[in-house]
Amino acid sequence: MRVVAQALVNTRAQYDHLFSIYVPIAIGVFLVIVVIVVAAVFMFKRRPPERAARWHENNPVEATYAVALGCVAAFLLYLTFTTEHKVDTVANQAHPAVVIDVVASKWEWTFSYPSYGFSERSGTVGRQPLVVPAGEAVRFNVSSVDVIHSFWIPALRYKHDAIPGSVQVITLTFSRGVFPGQCAEFCGLRHADMIFTAHAVTPAEFAAWAKSKGRGPTP
Ligand SMILES: [Cu+2]
Known about the structure:
The chain is α+β, with helices and mostly antiparallel strands and 219 residues long. The protein has helices at 11-43, 59-93, 203-213; strands at 98-105, 108-113, 118-121, 130-133, 137-144, 149-153, 158-162, 168-173, 177-183, 195-201. α1 packs antiparallel against α2 (59-93). The chain binds copper (II) ion.
């Protein structure tokens, strides 16, 4: 059987790459507009009525400007959709090292590890950590039992709604470390307390931790 090696998708790197293209373009467009506005203010200052300009449009200039902005928008849309495809579709094609069912509820998170046969509840204000193996694809099946919540780990630059009655499949890759997580969709009075902490440990440490909690991996 041929094994296809799947490169893991680093959501943070993907986002940072996109950001590094968006920001210079945004600054460039902003500067062009500022220069044109300031130039227009000085060039077309109030003047005697008999010397006022008789024309009020310049189709070639306006068309060039519109086409240029259209091209910039099309380019950014292309980059954005390409990145989204990688983050959502390509990432989900990777073979996950572990699958975690994430269930959001007012106002806590439940993390179940079906192949190890146990669940962890974050508890409101996130006392129990979400433990994941670092450097491996981690598949999350995200859902909700009551209202719409949002599963968000800012350091990974990735956020997805948790919607009642539907399961969102997300594959993320963590580097080693501790990453705060938070519900990112206002879901009621204690929304702000709906936090958790992701602990990304080595695969060996993860295996030992999971074994101490559950029955060990089942295929
Ligand atoms: Cu919330």
